[in-house]
Amino acid sequence: MDIHEYQAKEILARFGVPVPRGGLANSPEQAAYRSDEIGGEAWVVKAQVHSGGRGEAGGVSLCHSDRDVARAAGGLLGKRLVTRQAPAGKLVSQVYVEEAAEIDRELYFAILLDRASEQVVIIASADGGVDVEHLAATAPEAVVRVPVEPAVGFLEFQAREIALAVGLPAGQITPASRIFRAAYRAFRDLDATLLEINPLVITHDGDLVAADAKMSFDDNAIFRSPGIAELRDPSQEDPRERHAADHGLSYVGLTGNIGCIINGAGLAMATMDMIKLAGGEPANFLDIGGGASPDRVLTAFRAVLQDDNVEAVLVNIFAGINRCDWVAEGVLKAFAEADVKVPVVARLSGTNVEQGRRILSHSGLPIIVADTLADAAENVVAASAAGRPAADRVTGGGLR
Ligand code: GDP
Ligand code: MN
């Protein structure tokens, strides 16, 4: 789960990371009022959306009067901000007004759960402000990576080494390592999966301040940390994923045209691979979990078909706790109640597979029953490309 910048800054401040003074506003008048309240001579007005890259998208404005502040807020509120990370745009319903920092240098600092190395890794760079993918691609030597041993934690000497590595002078090593370790405590205590401060600013006065902040949390651990669940903002989430989550289904939205109804994350991954191997692109995948009733399968169809890009559906079930006959009945129910207009390919295996296949093949419905996963993938890719001119067909490109 992602949260807004202002929420991440509130958390960081609580753990001892210095952040600029600021206030939230949902109207231009309130934004101007906030700048008066904060005082000073310059402010930044920042769109609160769950996306980075706001600066280059016009979502961050430096202002020198309260009229400027009101105008900047008015230009953002109620609009959708389109960023590199959110091409469909995200609704701006709040802006955050902050005292502007006088920036001498911008550093990059992040803590993340690195799934490849199965460790928490601290990443830092002397070149902040730009995104880290860009940094890693253009100047990999400028990026410091420090793994954290979970049993030992993030140690003082490691924090000092990072401060040295990003080129901080002697007088700033201690305050910087305090900030790094405070950020780590926030990350660890709240079960975060990502904490990014970009930029961590050095001001003209030599102070260190978190000018931007981003945090994401492990959904499965949110129940442990009081107050974190309340930070959720459904207006910023993928509506397709929200619909599924509201029904207790786990759904992942992708960019292709094949909808996938599967049980289990491992089978989902294998299915994605097989579809790609057959030259197709998944639009999404939905995990129905174990012991799924026909109604649950119907709900899964509804969620998958909500995505207008879906041109064919693949049902791939390896039934252990599940029952193929129930899944098959669910598919029939979907045809009866969910207005299925796209080709459906089903591959069933495991518990009650004979009954399941019989139900599908005797249904009189246009369902392609496949024997193997490879077979199913080829069929569904062919079905999704059918009925459109060849020039238009998906040929297995990458993420858009
Ligand atoms: P992002 O583009 O979504 O990552 O938003 P940021 O909060 O990182 O802001 C983008 C850029 O705006 C930063 O890299 C800074 O260069 C600039 N910026 C942000 N806050 C301030 C500020 O207080 N003062 C000044 N002068 N520039 C700022
Ligand atoms: Mn930033």
Automatic annotation (TrEMBL):
Keyword Ligase assigned: yes
List of residues binding substrate: 263
Cofactor stoichiometry and binding remark: Binds 1 Mg(2+) ion per subunit.
GO biological processes: succinyl-CoA metabolic process; tricarboxylic acid cycle
Protein name: Succinate--CoA ligase [ADP-forming] subunit beta
Transmembrane segments: none
InterPro entries: ATP-grasp, ATP-grasp_succ-CoA_synth-type, ATP_grasp_subdomain_1, Succ-CoA_synthase_bsu_CS, SUCC_ACL_C, Succ_CoA_ligase-like_bsu, Succinyl-CoA_synth-like
Keyword ATP-binding part of the UniProt annotation: yes
Subunit comment: Heterotetramer of two alpha and two beta subunits.
Alphabetized Pfam families for the sequence: ATP-grasp_2, Ligase_CoA
Catalysed reactions, semicolon-separated: succinate + ATP + CoA = succinyl-CoA + ADP + phosphate; GTP + succinate + CoA = succinyl-CoA + GDP + phosphate
Binding-site list for ATP: 46, 53-55, 98, 101, 106
Taxonomic lineage of the native organism: Bacteria, Bacillati, Actinomycetota, Actinomycetes, Pseudonocardiales
Domain annotation ATP-grasp: ranges: 9-226
PROSITE patterns named among the record's database cross-references: ATP_GRASP (PS50975), SUCCINYL_COA_LIG_3 (PS01217)
A single MF term (Gene Ontology): magnesium ion binding
GO cellular component, as recorded: cytosol; succinate-CoA ligase complex
